[in-house]
Amino acid sequence: MLAVVDCNAFYCNCERLFRPDLKNTPIVVLSNNDGCVISRTPEAKKFDIAMGVPYHHISKLCREKKIAVFSSNFALYTNLSHRVMSVLKSITSRVEVYSVDEAFIDLSGARDFFHEGQYIKAEVERLVGIPVSIGIAPTKTLAKMAVEMAKKSHFGVISLDTKKKQLDALKGLPVSAVWGVGHGRQLRLQSIGIKTATDLMNYKNPLLLRKNLTKLGEQIQDELNGIQCFPLGERTEKKKSISSTRTFSQASYDKIVVSQAIATHASDVACELRMQGSVCKKIAIMIRSNPFQSFHEQYNGMLAANLLTPTSNTFELIKIAFELLDEMWKHGISIHKAGVFALDIQDEHEHEVDLFAPIIDPRQAELMRTIDCINDREGPRMVRSAACGTDNKAWAMRQNMLSPRYTTSWIDLPMVR
DNA sequence: TCTGGGGTCCTAGGACCC
DNA sequence: TCTGGGGTCCTAGGACCC
After folding, report:
1. Are residues A102 and A8 in contact, defined by beta-carbon separation less than 8 angstroms?
2. Which of A67, A130, A327, A336 is surrounded by the fewest CB atoms within 10 Å?
């Protein structure tokens, strides 16, 4: 049996720790530049404040309803996240930190799962002060469903430790509520007659399931049936890609301003690389204009360079990033967002350091241009750059940038912190 | 000149998640 | 006026080798 421990409205409750007077007040926390809502308490949800809405759409409501609004403070959230995780590690030896506000833990030693869950919840709240919900089940997928129920329940803990409880929990849930089933997979499942979580659990045609959902479909189905496919991992492994990107508070035409941002991002990425003892074999930079100002000429570019000598050296990475920026810079277009990506990451000691080797592969004299597009009158085209691992289609959907058949779905997409 | 099969590696792209 | 940031995994298909 395993459990997922999920902090309730994590960022909001981090802020609340220092503002006990806001105990029952609705709170929202905003993203970088106070752009949009990335966390909100149940009290704020009652005003229909959705995840990801632009703040300027709800600022009036916030004033009227006296909703407390915070700019984000990620240093604080990271710190409190570590504290929560160490409490969990002190209680159970096997903890998989899944995200800043979520962890899977092993509960196999417990005699009474529900009471163990309550104990853990109480300990986290006592020692850190962050309220959590806990879902307990034989598999991660079921535990995720349990924790969703737990958030709405009085105790904040739900244990699906018997088959009957599991069946009851799935009853009536749409298949999109299953962990790992997003909009695209939901449509594919619908096309073969699977509409609810129970449908998926009982589906009898593994070939068709695999055809539509690849191997993952069968795994999710097994997990719903209590068969573990995604075992608890320790997750101490190193990151496989590292990025640093930021929207400017004010878009800029100035190459110097953008260079400064690029240098900062490259330096951050280099620092992260060294912290995990890695080097990267490929570096990419991204600059783009503001897609919301569709009346302006748009630019969305990404350029990558393969490195002959993998590195995590700040100066080397900044130098290459600047070369890339030179290569792709477009005069007369205001840049709204910029970023640096470290790709093809490998262990530091895995490659031999040759101090005299050139950094950029001379065989690739001209830098690899992966994306470079300027839109015409029809509005920005989003082109995905594969290597960076970003999800431009989902992103474009959220931004209402794709055709109308997509725009209706963007609200379904999880917009998360 | 034509024809064959099998394997591995790499990359672009799709989908999801928090 | 004002719309975030950071990740993972899987697969198809092409390049290349024998």
Report:
1. no
2. A327
CA distance A130 to A14: 7
CB-count burial class (<10 Å; 0-12, 13-18, 19+) for A349:
exposed
Amino acid letter, residue A360: I
* Strand bridging mode A27-30 / A132-137: unpaired
- Spatial distance from the CA of A11 to the C1' of B18 (Å): 13
Shortest CA–C1' contact from A7: which nucleotide? B18
Distance A326 CA to B14 C1' (A): 31
C1'-nearest nucleotide to the CA of A383: B13
Report CA(A257)–C1'(C8) in Å, whole number: 32
Radius of gyration of chain A measured on its C-alpha atoms: 23
CATH number for the region A1-161 comes to 3.30.70.270
Give CA–CA dist A142/A340, Å, rounded.
Answer: 37
Which amino acid belongs to residue A91? I
Dump strand ranges (E) for A262-366.
Answer: 278-288, 299-311, 335-347
CA A247 to C1' C6, whole Å:
14
b/e sequence A263-275, b meaning 16+ C-beta within 10 Å: bebbbbbbebbee
pLDDT tens track for A264-298 = 999 999 999 999 999 998 899 999 999 888 777 88
- A111-124 pLDDT, tens per residue? 999 999 999 999 99
The full set of domain ranges for chain A reads 1-161, 171-229, 242-388
Helix (H) or strand (E) holding A264: helix A255-275
pLDDT at A291: 85
Query: What pTM value is reported for the model?
Result: 0.84
pLDDT in tens, A198-213: 999 999 999 899 999 9
Query: A2 near A137, Cβ under 8 Å?
Result: yes
Residues A290 and A296: beta-carbon distance below 8 Å: yes
Give, in words, the CATH class of A242-388: alpha beta
Q: DSSP strand E in A258-298: where?
A: 278-288
Question: CATH assignment of A171-229?
Answer: 1.10.150.20
The answer to whether the C-beta of A56 is closer than 7 A to strand C is yes
Residue type, A116: E
Q: How many CB atoms lie within 10 A of CB A93?
A: 9
